[in-house]
Amino acid sequence: MVNNAAGWAHPDSRMDWLIIALLLGAALLHSSWHAMIKAGDDRLVGLAGMNVVSAGISMCALPWVAIPEARQWPVLAFSVVLHNTYKFGLAQVYKHGELSQAYPIARGFCPLFSALLALVLLAEIPTGWQAMGIILISGGILIMGTENRAARPSSPLLIAAAITGFLVASYTVVDAYGVRLGGDWLSYVIWLMVLDGAAFVATISVSRGSGFWKTIVAQWRYTLATGILGTVAFCVFLWALSRGPIGGVSALRETSVLFASLIGVIAMKERWSAMKFAGVVLIMFGIIAFAWRA
Fold it and tell me: How many whole angstroms separate alpha carbon 118 and alpha carbon 228?
């Protein structure tokens, strides 16, 4: 990793096996908490409950991490806005489609958007193998989300999914820039989870009233589980962004769709099909493209 003229660290263009392995593990955790949120009655309250846990864990870690550099604070503020907006978009996506359809459509746009934004804003050019991996994974994910001819995605679902995907790609690039701007990736992610969680919890608490906290207490096991899963997965994601190319990291993170589809089929009795299997195959080839040059 080297510092460029702008003063932020530019990671190696290649991805090592450790990044790939940990991102695949984080993808499993990522899909697990998404499935739990989707299964809940009120997705916004579920997301806010998860943030109560992640912010609480992060606040306990604050004494042991550095305070972000002055130039990182505007990045953190912008990232908080993007993360909070994304959560409202995600709730709308889950309102209009089942997990095995809504989740892939929302996430399928992310690797392509992330790679394009990283290219335009940070001049980060993926290698040929990485570009192939990004295209294969995004294509496979989108096939898995649109394969059901009997239940074509509605216009509201497609619009919400595209917006949500762009928001994820945007905060991915912003967080990659922020975490590389300082020398301590953990400091950035801890402060981000505190600020993001506090802002979102405050917003939902005001809109839902006293019933919000009663719900959190009543379903504390569910809240604790989603919070821990989300915290670990996000920490791995930010660590990977500090070390690897944005498009590749985003694509490997979105392999969580594989696990989400399995959870949807096994736990929620959602349907399986040949086209969905084809999407799985494309995603697997995308992973192989990244691993080939690891």
Answer: 29
Only one residue has tokens 């195959």, namely 281
Contact 134, 42 (CB under 8 A): no
Q: List pLDDT tens digits, range 196-221.
A: 999 999 998 888 887 888 888 888 89
Burial class of residue 120 (count of CB atoms within 10 Å of its CB; 0-12, 13-18, 19+): exposed
Q: Where are the alpha helices (DSSP H) in the chain?
A: 17-39, 43-61, 73-96, 99-122, 128-146, 155-181, 185-208, 211-218, 220-243, 246-253, 256-267, 274-292
Would you give the DSSP letter of residue 2?
E
Domain ranges (residues) in the chain: 11-292
User: pTM here?
Assistant: 0.87
Residue pair 147/273 in contact (Cβ under 8 Å)? The answer is: yes
Provide the Cα torsion 265, 271, 277, 278; round to 10°.
-140
State the burial class of residue 272 (Cβ atoms within 10 Å of its Cβ: 0-12, 13-18, 19+).
middle
Q: What are the tens digits of pLDDT across the range 85-100?
A: 988 887 777 676 665 6
Amino acid at 70: A
